[in-house]
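Could you help me review a protein record that somebody else here produced? My question to you is simply how this chain folds and whether the tokens agree. Thanks in advance; the entry in question is below:
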Amino acid sequence: MTCSGAPGRVLATPKPRPTPQARALADGLRAARKAARLAATEVADKLAWSQSTISRIETGLRAASAEEVSALLAVYQVTGEWREALLSLSRDSGPWWFRRRVLPV
């Protein structure tokens, strides 16, 4: 799509914003990492993930599966209610068709 009055100029599509649940999960995971006194690069090394993956999960730009959240929480040694709350958020932070287990038409 081009801008009217500016031939050849392409409009950028806005990036999707994280849902409130995804934002809460991201904030909780970052807080857990900091409480464990770990740098994102250390966590990435322990899980054999890229540092970019950790960063995108912690900013809510990338959805994390319950399995990924569980792996992060194991590295952070988070247990009990805090662990369950973050895992619950990971199950509720995806798009509506993922949460309801149906695919969009």
The radius of gyration is 17 Å. The longest strand covers residues 6-10. Residues 26 and 36 are 15 Å apart (CA to CA).
